[in-house]
Design a protein that fits this description.
Layout lengths: L1 H7 L1 H4 L3 H36 L1 H13 L4 H4 L4 H15 L8 H7 L3 H28 L1
Helix pairs in contact: 3-7, 6-8
Length: 140
């Protein structure tokens, strides 16, 4: 709520519209290359999926694996462990493309290239810790 309020009153905190425009342009320059690639990727995937019929293949695939949701129960894993494994996996893959850092990059005047080495190290170290923990808890 505080973030929404700050963004709503941002034009009033700047001395002039020119200053606000400069701040927006500077922030956009920092993260512009990341923001540009996602609409392009979505458009390419949209064209590929509709033009080649992959939508039907993909939906049949998802319907087929939805039957396998009960598989963790047959392996002896409880639903809580499975849900936490999914949540940890989602958080872990956020290190591959750190979208959560976009506001921080603008504030710190960095580019994605400046932090990718650190997030890659975090990806591998965090993945090893997560895998070891899930294996230990899963067999306990």
């Amino acid at each position: 709520m505080v973030g929404v309020t700050r963004r709503a009153f941002a034009p009033f905190r700047c001395g002039s519209l020119r200053e606000l425009g400069k701040l927006i342009i500077d922030a956009g320059r920092t993260v512009g290359n990341v923001l540009l690639q996602y609409p392009l990727h979505a458009g390419i995937i949209g064209i590929i999926m509709t033009a080649t019929g992959l939508v039907e293949v993909f939906s049949r695939f998802l319907a087929g694996i939805s039957i396998g949701i009960s598989t963790p129960a047959t392996l002896g894993a409880g639903p809580a462990l499975v849900i936490m494994g999914i949540a940890y996996g989602d958080q872990w893959t956020n290190m591959i493309q750190p979208f959560w850092t976009i506001p921080l990059l603008a504030i710190a005047d960095l580019t994605v290239r400046d932090i990718m080495g650190y997030t890659t190290i975090t990806l591998f170290v965090g993945g090893a810790v997560m895998l070891a923990t899930l294996l230990l808890v899963g067999f306990a």
